Automatic annotation (TrEMBL):
CDD domains: NAT_SF. This is GNAT family N-acetyltransferase. It comes from Gluconacetobacter tumulicola. Residues 23-174 form the N-acetyltransferase domain. It holds the Pfam family Acetyltransf_1. It comes from the Bacteria. Keywords: Acyltransferase, Transferase. GO terms for molecular function: acyltransferase activity, transferring groups other than amino-acyl groups.
């Protein structure tokens, strides 16, 4: 399996819009806690990528990474580089997604390594993230050196709207 990780600019975002939208819809359908509720339409996913993320990329607020297997995009993560003025040393990891069919193959780890390396390159010394408490992703983040800062109960609804879950905030110094 030859996975390639790259930064995606607005042109790549447009070219990979179908793959990005598919990853998002299929991840939410599989239960991912990434801020979306079911049912999530392909059109809503396309709007998120093309408008919300496209605009953030244009403004330099986010850096988007993609994991590619051949021509197909199979995973993505974002580095939120724009933080408040009193936090120029910090950035956030957001919307870590690997297509459900491609999980447990090291793709998430590869995406995270690329994001952390880029964070160092742009002079960041602290990276934060939040994830659903007791999610399988906690193991990945811990293995990459992230430490738990705390947990907030009843933080968000699961994507199916059946129950609320806690979220765990994590950090890593670079």
């Amino acid at each position: 399996m030859d996975i390639r990780i790259a930064e995606l600019d607005n042109e790549a975002l447009v070219n990979d819009l179908d793959d990005l939208s598919g990853i998002l819809v299929d991840s939410v359908t599989a239960g991912a806690a990434i801020g979306f509720m079911l049912p999530l339409s392909k059109e809503e996913a396309r709007r998120f990528w093309s408008q919300d993320i496209g605009n953030a990329l244009s403004r330099g607020e986010r850096i988007l990474f993609g994991a590619r297997l051949g021509p197909r995009l199979v995973g993505t993560v974002q580095l939120v580089a724009a933080c408040p003025r009193n936090q120029p040393h910090r950035c956030e990891i957001a919307k870590m997604m690997v297509h459900p069919e491609m999980r447990r193959r090291g793709i998430g780890r590869m995406l995270m390594h690329a994001a952390l390396e880029r964070a160092r390159d742009i002079g960041k010394t602290l990276v934060t993230l939040d994830t659903r408490s007791r999610d399988v992703a906690l193991g990945l983040y811990s293995s990459l050196g992230f430490e738990i800062a705390g947990e907030i109960p009843d933080y968000a609804w699961d994507s199916d709207g059946q129950a609320m879950h806690a979220t765990t905030y994590m950090f890593r110094r670079l």
